[in-house]
Predict the 3D structure of the following.
Amino acid sequence: MSTVKVKCPGTVANLVCGFDILGLALHEPADIMEVKLLDEPRVIIHNRDAYNLPTEPEKNVAGVVFLSVMERIGGHTGFEVTIEKHIKPGSGIGSSAASAAGAAVAANHLLGNIFTSDEVVQFAMNGEKLASGVKHADNIAPCILGGISLIRSIHPLDIVSIPSPDLYVTVIHPQIEVRTSDARQILKQQVLLKDAIRQWGNIAGLVTGFMKNDYDLIGRSLEDVIIEPVRSILIPGFDEVKRKCKEAGALGGGISGSGPSIFMLSKDDSTAKAVESVMQEVYNKIGIDYHTYVTMINKKGVEIVAGY
Ligand code: ADP
């Protein structure tokens, strides 16, 4: 096999209380990438979308991942990729992670699965570093592995897959720009002990709730007392969306990644759709364009959809 087509899902990182350590994969939106093995050591990138992302390998996260794989294996191998992006860059739903994860999984597949899943995650993290300046894995891990991932540690890499019920996810992407650097800069570098205690209680509660299918516990634990109060000021309508979504039956939710997207988890499809309507009403009133998704947690992660 010399060509492979992969479907690379969007992801929600910074899962409320799980800033930098918990993320989940979505069914929609998802990018498609077609990757071909070359017998010369170069990377060629084509874009089949309207986002005008760089095609220089060093400036595109997929290119950076291929280059890091090539550096590891040596020889004359190269990669040609066509990227069809459906996850808007800068949306907060893991656009760069989808390309990085897709590149790493496709390259490994074409090379005969010579790398472990931790190594595939490491290659993909090289790409994420280009997009955000730091090597983090809370989008990459769920994108590759599917489901919900806990990044217990980056050095050394320690990723734990957390089983969960089949939760529905409603996402609204307001068409405004929140720069990741701004979202990082406004964070306080110190936390109060009482806030830390509340936060780690919530993280433990959330993980336990997922594992025990305990919806009430999940709902109670979807609370962030450290990051959200600071970051949410960058997202117009955030507090109103959150309050009204919960009134409509959502278990809870918060900022997706570093924003501007907001996500909510629900027990069933009809609640997830009611939550979508509530989100739309708030943004219609504010007068900001948006895109919404009603989807589910994707338990597969990056998927090989064709090979030839
Ligand atoms: P998101 O918030 O949706 O996760 P990111 O902020 O992680 O998006 O990534 C977007 C940034 O990464 C943009 O500056 C974009 O130009 C850059 N980038 C480079 N290559 C890619 C790629 N293949 N896919 C998405 N973004 C890319």
About this structure: The pocket of adenosine-5'-diphosphate is lined by residues 53, 60-62, 83, 89-97, 99, 131-132, 180, 257 (CB under 6 Å).
